[in-house]
Design brief:
five-stranded parallel beta sheet, globular, alpha/beta, Rossmann fold, 9 helices, 2 domains, binds cobalamin
C-alpha cells in the first residue's frame, strides 16, 4: 500500500470508527517510513477533531465517539511506542508527572504529550485519567518531580487544575515544582488565573514549554 493510501485509510478509519484495522495500518505506515508525528498531527488529530465537531452537532453520538476514539488509540499505541523508542536517550531532561484531572477521562492528547516528552528525554510518570489531587501530589513527592503537567478536556473539569495548585500550596510544595496545563478548552488566561507556570496548545509546544520551565 502506498504511503498516501495508508494516510487516507488511517484518517477514514478514525472518522468512521473502524477500529479493528488501525493498529495494523499504523505498523504498515512505520514499515513505509512514515513519520509518526506527521501521521498523528496531519491525519489522526484532524480526523478525531472532525468526529468531535460532528458529535457537537449531534450528527454523531456517544457510541460513534467511542469507536473513533478506540480507532485513534489503536494507531497511537503503535506510533507512540515508535516515538518513545527512537527517543531513547541520554540523561533525563527532567522528571514529569502527568495526568488528566479528576472527573475527566479524555486521555488521547495527554498521552501524546507524555510520549513526546519521553521521546525528548524527559522521565515521565503518566498517572492516566481521572486523577485525584492527592494522587498527583503523592507521586510528585515520591518521584521528586520537577514538572507537573495536567490535562483537562471539559470546561467543568478545568477548575480542578486550580484545585491541585491550591492543594500544593497548602502542603508548602508549590514553589518546588513547575506546573503546566493544557487540553482543548484550556487557555493562557485560565493558566494565569489558576497560577500555573505555563500553558501550551499542542504536544510540540508542550515539550518546548517543559524545556523552558526546566531552565527557569
Ligand atoms: C475522543 C473524545 C472522547 C472519548 C475519549 C476517549 C479517550 N480514550 O480519550 C470519550 C468517548 C470517552 C469521550 C467522552 C466524553 N466526552 Co468527549 N470528546 C472526544 C473528542 C472527540 C476528541 C478529544 C481528543 O482526543 N482530541 C485529540 C487530542 C490530540 O487533542 P487534545 O486532547 O486537545 O490534546 C492536545 C492539546 O490540547 C494539548 N494538550 C492536551 N493535554 C495537555 C496537557 C498539557 C499539560 C499541555 C501543555 C498540553 C496538552 O496537546 C494535545 C496534543 O496536541 C473531543 C472533541 C475535541 N475537539 O476535543 C470531545 C469532547 C471533548 N467531549 C465532549 C463531551 C461532552 C464528552 C462527554 C461529556 C460525553 C457524554 N455525554 O458522556 C464525555 C465525558 C466523559 C468524561 N467524564 O471525561 C465535548 C466537551 C464539550 C463541553 N463543552 O463540555 C467535546 C468537545 C465534543 C463536543 N464537540 O461536544 N470523549
Amino acid at each position: 500500500m502506498a504511503s498516501d493510501d495508508i494516510y487516507k485509510q488511517l484518517y477514514e478509519n478514525v472518522l468512521n470508527g473502524d477500529f479493528e484495522q488501525t493498529g495494523e495500518l499504523a505498523n504498515k505506515a512505520l514499515e513505509n517510513n512514515i513519520d509518526p508525528m506527521d501521521a498523528i498531527n496531519s491525519y489522526l488529530v484532524p480526523a478525531i477533531e472532525l468526529v468531535g465537531e460532528r458529535f457537537g452537532k449531534k450528527e454523531y453520538f456517544l457510541p460513534d465517539l467511542m469507536r473513533s476514539a478506540n480507532a485513534m488509540k489503536n494507531a497511537l499505541e503503535v506510533f507512540e511506542k515508535d516515538i518513545r523508542e527512537k527517543g531513547v536517550e541520554r540523561k533525563s531532561s527532567g522528571k514529569v508527572v502527568i495526568g488528566t484531572v479528576k472527573g475527566d477521562i479524555h486521555e488521547i492528547g495527554k498521552s501524546i504529550v507524555a510520549s513526546l516528552l519521553t521521546a525528548k528525554g524527559f522521565t515521565v510518570t503518566d498517572l492516566g485519567v481521572d486523577v485525584e489531587s492527592e494522587v498527583f501530589i503523592n507521586k510528585i513527592v515520591e518521584e521528586g518531580a520537577e514538572i507537573l503537567a495536567m490535562s483537562a478536556l471539559l470546561p467543568i473539569t478545568m477548575p480542578y487544575q486550580g484545585k491541585v495548585i491550591e492543594d500544593l500550596k497548602a502542603r508548602g510544595l508549590r514553589d518546588k515544582i513547575k506546573i503546566m496545563v493544557g487540553g482543548s478548552p484550556v487557555t493562557q488566561e485560565h493558566a494565569e488565573r489558576i497560577g500555573a507556570d505555563g500553558y501550551a496548545d499542542d504536544a510540540v509546544e508542550a515539550v518546548k514549554l517543559a524545556e523552558r520551565l526546566m531552565k527557569s
